[in-house]
Design goal:
The protein has about 150 residues and is of the alpha+beta class. It has helices at about 1-40, 80-90; strands at about 45-55, 65-75, 100, 125-135. The protein contains 2 helices and 4 strands; from the N terminus they run αββαββ. A 4-stranded antiparallel β-sheet has the order 1-2-4-3.
Length: about 150
C-alpha cells in the first residue's frame, strides 16, 4: 500500500514538473505562429521583407497574463499611411497588423523585457508590422513569464 501511495505521489510531482517545462515551449510556439501569420501575408509593392521576431511573456501593461507578440521588419518606399492602409485589409481588429515607423533595432512597444531586431536599422524607410496572438490552452497558466 505504501509503495502505491509513493508511486502516485511521484507520478503527480513528475506530471506537474513536466507541465512547467512544457508550458514555455508551447507558448513560444504560439508566439512564433503569431509572427508567421505576418510573414505569410503578401507584401505591398516596393516593399522588402527584412526579418521577423516573436516573444511570449508578460510584455506590456500591469498584472498577470501571458501575451504573444509577433512582428516583421520591412523596408518600403511607401509612406507610413500607405502601409497602414494596405495592412488594414488583413486586420480583424485593432491589435492586428499594426504598422509603425522603426527608427532603430529596439522594439519599443514591448515594455517589460528587451526585444530587438538583428538588423541595423538606418534610415526613415523601415517599418514594423506587428500583432498580438492568443492561446486557448491551459499552458499560459503554467508559464512563469506571464506572472
Amino acid at each position: 500500500m505504501k509503495k502505491v501511495f509513493v508511486t502516485i505521489i511521484l507520478i503527480v510531482i513528475i506530471g506537474f514538473l513536466s507541465v512547467l517545462v512544457i508550458a514555455p515551449v508551447v507558448n513560444d510556439n504560439i508566439a512564433k505562429k503569431t509572427s508567421d501569420k505576418l510573414v505569410n501575408l503578401p507584401l505591398p509593392n516596393n516593399t522588402e521583407f527584412i526579418e521577423t521576431v516573436h516573444m511570449a511573456g508578460k510584455l506590456v501593461g500591469n498584472g498577470n497574463g501571458m501575451q504573444y507578440f509577433g512582428a516583421i521588419l520591412i523596408k518600403s518606399e511607401l509612406s507610413l499611411e500607405e502601409l497602414k492602409e494596405y495592412y488594414l485589409k488583413f486586420a480583424k481588429d485593432e491589435w492586428e497588423c499594426v504598422v509603425e515607423s522603426q527608427t532603430d533595432a529596439d522594439i519599443k512597444i514591448i515594455e517589460h523585457t528587451k526585444l530587438t531586431f538583428k538588423t541595423n536599422v538606418e534610415g526613415d524607410n523601415y517599418y514594423i508590422v506587428y500583432l498580438w496572438g492568443n492561446n486557448n490552452t491551459i499552458f499560459h497558466e503554467f508559464d512563469i513569464r506571464g506572472h
